[in-house]
## 1
Amino acid sequence: MDIHLLIIDPQNDFCSPDGSLSVTGADEDMKRLSSFIETNGKKMDIHVTMDTHHLFDIAHPIFWMDGDGNEPKPFTIITEDDVKDGKWRAKNPVFQKTALEYVQKLTANDRYPLCIWPPHCLIGTPGHNIFEDVMEALLNWEGSFGTVDYVTKGSNMFTEHYSAVMADVEDSADPTTALNTRLIDILEKADMVFVAGEASSHCVANTMTDIIDNFGEDSAKKVTLLTDCMSPVPGFEALADNFFDDMKKRGVKLEKSTDVLGGA
């Protein structure tokens, strides 16, 4: 049987209690996931996505300023009207047109409004690294069973990339922001797909919604979300609940890691 495990953004900035965008409970999620890999890894192929950012990013405070030159605080929402009215503008005026066009496209595609996040998963920093327990399990797995398929996303500074398979707004000049049909095709051909990672309110939710949207009609039934190996960003619990409800309606299974295959 062809079984695949998709792990979404199991990185220190999300999973460590002192991470810059720490998700409550993520450290314990990742410990359970590590046990699941150690117990069941020989039965499956593994894919790991990694949020991968520059400091200068349209969703980081450094990109923006108000009329007094102040950067927005983390979790500030910037709307199309905010940019049109001058409440927020690009700190570098060269990027003002890009900034306005971006928030207009977000309004049109009805995904998320622009949320300013604490700088996180910066390339080359400890926060970008995979959570230690998971990394150890992956290295042990690679020592015996194969090669982890690492998928990076988020290094384009002018679009958000919650989903591991598609940016919120595609940049036609950057193929890394386009739909990742390679990964989707691999997962759809599998007999079973297990999914874990952070956060259930954002990157897991967007990744899986995009994958299921691009699966064939019956392929969602192959997918199981390991609900004890993911948690929502604090304050966004309702988004995770809505995501779980939508996945169940579309045929995706929700299980604990201890209740599938050999458990953990």
## 2
Amino acid sequence: MMRWKNAAAAIVAALSLTAAAQAADPPKIRFGWIVPVTNIAPVLFAKEGLSLHNGKSYTYEAVRFQGSPNMVTALATGDIEIALLAWSSIGIAIENAGLSDARVVADEIQEGIGKHYTHEYMVLKDGPIKKVEDLKGKNLATNVMGAAVDIAMRAMARKVKLEFPRDFNIVEASFPNMKALLLEKKVDLIPGVLPFSLDGELRSKANVLFTEKDAMGPSELGFLVMKADFIRKNRAAVVDFYEDYIRVVRWFTDPANHKEAVAIQANFAKIPAERLESWLFTEKDYYRDRNGRPNLDTLQSNLETQRELGFLKTKIDVKKYADLSLIEEAVKRIK
């Protein structure tokens, strides 16, 4: 009997040690991203010495996706902890994917802030389109129906009483193919996004008809979304992550580090650094808040435009789906 008691005690002790070891394992933070160079997730810790907590209170992994819909699914199923979403996808995630526990927690990039980059809608210099009203009966390109550039394009058309599909046609195409479509006159207008809009040949043959900022003001182009349950269970580790994240963003956007920051992104994307030096992490790039703070008022305005154009059914109060306390705590640590 004593032997069985000893064995049972040994099993209990072993299970307790295993549970303690599992509890001590730092949580993994998997960060979804889409676009090389523009998105910082894949090179977040490429510069040594900026992260104080990675590998200690949390572990990190960057996970690439082809688009926001797959990333929303992965967030919902627990396959990633951070989804990088745009104003055009967060509302749909809440409405259609049932992500009622989604929380906007930090910022990556904003569009149309001050002198920073805003998406450009381009037409041929020698073509017939000189004003927005001239788009009636024309073929307009977008990457995906319902994407940010698509909604902004429709918002601008509505300002002059043009509506899809009554007054113009929309053609879907990938951003790398936009230039060829315009120059070969297969479409009459294309959206220009970084870095494709900086193409020298395109610039020499096309004019900017309007910008996304003209259509709807500034926009929240990319922000970080987490599930409330994961935050609640791992709050200390998540704050540690955002302390590291903000420190990295400040380093990459510091003009003193420009050459090295560009080299890191160029090396990862396997493109010549000289193609990035003139714009990346400068005023010609998208705006990056040095404290990682998203503008919820801007996001609310973006969602209202989306709803007015019929892409959302309900009015969403973004403040109910935001938790900025994480970055606020993180910023206090590194001031």
## 3
Amino acid sequence: MSTNRISQLQAYLSATPNDPFLHHALALEYVKLEDDATAKGHFEQNLSGHQSYVATYYHLGKLLERAGNTAEAISIYEQGMAVAKQAGDNHTYNELQAAYEDLAY
């Protein structure tokens, strides 16, 4: 099922290549397939072009944690908290803060 969903998302992405939701959705599909390298690429594309897409920070941080990149995950959580705070997104801020504290302390 994931490969079919990936194909659909890639088709949508070819029409709108800069859509942060599509990159995020694709990254999550690749996470399900345990293709973290491809997932990371889509998350990083969001961060390079859509820093305000706050959901990316949590999921990228979790991916980095699984890979054992603790320092990088902490940095991503910190960046995400700053973006969420600036956007007034308290829910995402709290999720990022909890992930950060679980990892940093």
